[in-house]
Design a protein that fits this description.
The chain contains no helices and 21 strands. The strands form 3 sheets. A 7-stranded parallel beta sheet has the order 1-4-7-10-13-16-19, with no helix packed on it.
Length: 160
């Protein structure tokens, strides 16, 4: 199974103003130290996560619309990092943003809404910096934290 776009092993592309949909393994997969700037894209209707960030990858996602996925909007695993800012993440089947297994991204000024699970879920020894996000109208909690998880929450934010 393939993703629409794969970024790996130190690659650092600029991916701008695309529609990425119908991926069997997700819309975009960033792994094994991948980087890159992904901006002004519409990522939707993928079988897995709209965006996977895995294994020490550190992309910058800004001004994207990530929606209507059959899994999470953005899933960050295995030491994934990244800066996610000014994205609209909505109507995904699982968490809008799932952060797990020693990952530590920064989420700044995103709108995460209308999801069928939690807006942001942090689990498995992961953490995050959450700054001025608007998380609302998700079926479960706006932010769901596993035992012992303590994200760094900065600035004004709205969670309903």
């Amino acid at each position: 199974m393939y993703s629409g776009v794969q970024i790996r092993t130190g690659s650092n592309p600029l991916i701008r103003r695309n529609k990425i949909w119908g991926g069997q393994n997700g819309g975009i997969l960033v792994y094994n130290g991948g980087m890159g700037v992904l901006e002004y894209n519409e990522i939707f209707d993928n079988a897995m996560a709209g965006v996977w960030i895995k294994t020490d990858s550190n992309p910058h996602l800004r001004y994207n619309k990530i929606h209507d996925g059959l899994d999470g909007g953005i899933c960050i695993f295995n030491g994934g990092r990244g800066l996610l800012e000014y994205n609209d993440i909505f109507r995904n089947t699982q968490a809008g943003v799932l952060i797990s297994s020693q990952s530590h991204p920064k989420l700044k000024r995103n709108r995460i809404y209308d999801g069928l699970a939690a807006g942001i879920e942090i689990t498995n020894n992961a953490t995050a910096t959450l700054e001025a996000n608007h998380v609302f109208n998700n079926k479960f909690a706006g932010i769901c934290l596993a035992t012992g998880v303590q994200p760094d929450m900065k600035g004004l934010y709205k969670i309903t």
